Amino acid sequence: MSLFSRLVVTTLPLVPKALVGRVARPYVAGETLEQAIGVVEDLNGEGAMATLDLLGEEVREREPALAAVEEYVRLFEAIEDRGLDANVSIKLTLLGLKIDQDFCRDNVAMIADCARSYGNFVRLDMEDRTCTDATLAIYHDLQPEYGNLGVVLQAYMRRTLADIAALPAEGANVRICKGIYIEPRTVAWKGFDTVRANFVRALEKLLERGVYVGIATHDEYLACAAIALLDRLEVPRDRYEFQMLLGVDNELRRILLDAGHRLRVYVPYGRDWYLYSVRRLRENPEVAAHVARAFFGIRKAG
Ligand code: FDA
Question: Which atom of ligand 1 lies nearest, measured to the CA of 123?
Fold first, then answer.
């Protein structure tokens, strides 16, 4: 990332919200369920699966958490009615994790129960280090009863290999990703190559244990390393999937799909798009150019 882009990233909180919304538009399916469903239909048409995420996090009151549960119920109905190849991803701080862990657990249970009635699946996204223990505890608590939950492990976390070892492998479904939150070095590996190395180690451990893995990356190096591992361990195509974010590297998405890998796109939608969009922009190597173009209203030629 260029020096100028890094400068733009650090000053993103000062960029007007409307401008952030404009630049981050490719990352978000829209504000409504209907818009999100339309995007999933297009992705399914391209041969990709989807996971739908209702945007929102860190709620401090029960009402928005319960409203989110209702929205997820509507999502499962829509997925079923439209015959979509999609599951859902949930953020536990949207479901009240920071209010009361038992309240959050009950909300996750309601979503898991609804998913089960449709034969569907629920991914528990992983948020920052203050949520790791509670997210894994809720997963370990509910998965034996519902059997349709999956977790996310972050390759930058020093604890991840131990978390894999503690995971009952039978029926487990884990998304492995680098990790997006800004964590201190005491809990997270910091070097770019160190995180890559830990990603590959974690993936290898998961595959060796027979866990179904969602390989979530747009890093071509990691996609290549993952394919080498899958080949060496002779992992069947139905025991893993690649996962990518909406709006990031559609070309790599096409390459992986054309090579016959299953691939799922993370499709976030909703009115609470700001924090998610800022995280995505922070990772975009061309953020400076995009923000400058949006600021000056300049469109790319062609
Ligand atoms: P890296 O960031 O090095 O990106 C590799 C290349 O991809 C870049 O060089 C660039 O070309 C392109 N790229 C990446 N991000 C881009 C962007 N925003 N805009 C344009 N180009 C971009 N994290 C977490 O902590 N908890 C979670 O639950 C999840 N869930 C999740 C689901 C899915 C499906 C994905 C793909 C990712 C996540 N993540 C996540 C985010 C993840 O931890 C990580 O931050 C991003 O995937 C970026 O890491 P990469 O492996 O893509 O490498």
Answer: 28
pLDDT tens per residue, range 270-281: 999 999 999 999
pLDDT digits (tens, 9 = 90+) for 61-97: 999 999 999 999 999 999 999 999 999 999 999 999 9
* SS3 state at 151: strand
**Chain Cα centroid distance, residue 65:** 19
Cα–Cα dist 169/204, whole Å: 13
Q: If you measure from the C-alpha of residue 218 to the centroid of ligand 1, how many angstroms do you get, rounded to a whole number?
A: 6
Enumerate the active-site residues: 125, 175
Query: Which pTM does this prediction carry?
Result: 0.96
Q: Which residues make Cβ contacts (< 8 Å) with residue 101, sequence separation at least 6?
A: 134, 137, 138
Residue 198: what are its φ and ψ, rounded to 5°?
-70, -30
Give residue ranges with CB within 6 A of ligand 1.
125-126, 152, 154, 177-181, 216-219, 222, 243-245, 248-249, 266, 280, 283-285
E strand or H helix that includes residue 50: strand 49-54
Q: How far apart are the first and last CA of the chain?
A: 25
Give the C-alpha separation, 270 to 105, whole Å.
22
Question: Which residue has the least CA distance to atom 20 on ligand 1?
Answer: 284
